[in-house]
Automatic annotation (TrEMBL):
Residues 30-72, 98-130 form the CBS domain. Pfam families: CBS. Transmembrane segments: none annotated. It comes from the Bacteria. This is CBS domain-containing protein.
Length: 134
């Protein structure tokens, strides 16, 4: 896996991206954690994305869900049409700062086997997503 999505037209003369801010994607669709899994899958399909940023009722980022996680929930015996995103199993609270060195964030993602990681500001609001290419 390698980091993807350098900012177009970057004038950086260094050997590579130095911070997460230089390689993160702009925050895509953000949904509330009380949304049902079915609706979240529809939002993903409409946005043509493989993940959604999940926020609480105050608009603070609580994590990220992937299409694979939602499909696994739908295939489970515990699933019903009222299943909410806040109940989806997975790593919650894994975030990075835009000031994190790129190599450090990439190492952490590989160690935890994450394909995407929310980038948040000091208040907990989503700024973007750091994604790894396969």
């Amino acid at each position: 896996m390698t980091l993807i999505r350098m900012q177009p037209g970057s004038s950086s003369t260094s050997c590579g991206p130095q911070t997460v801010n230089e390689v993160m994607d702009v925050a895509g669709p953000q949904v509330c954690d009380d949304m049902t899994v079915e609706v979240a899958l529809a939002v993903m399909a409409g946005a043509r994305t493989g993940h959604l940023l999940v926020c609480d009722e105050d608009g603070l980022c609580t994590g990220l869900v992937t299409r694979a996680q939602l499909i696994a929930v739908c295939d489970s015996a515990a699933y019903d049409d009222r299943f909410r995103l806040r109940a989806v199993p997975g790593d919650r609270g894994l975030f990075t700062s835009p000031l994190t060195p790129t190599a450090e964030a990439e190492h952490a993602m590989r160690h935890r086997r994450l394909d995407a990681l929310p980038v948040i500001d000091e208040q907990g609001c989503a700024l973007g997503v750091l994604a790894l290419a396969r």
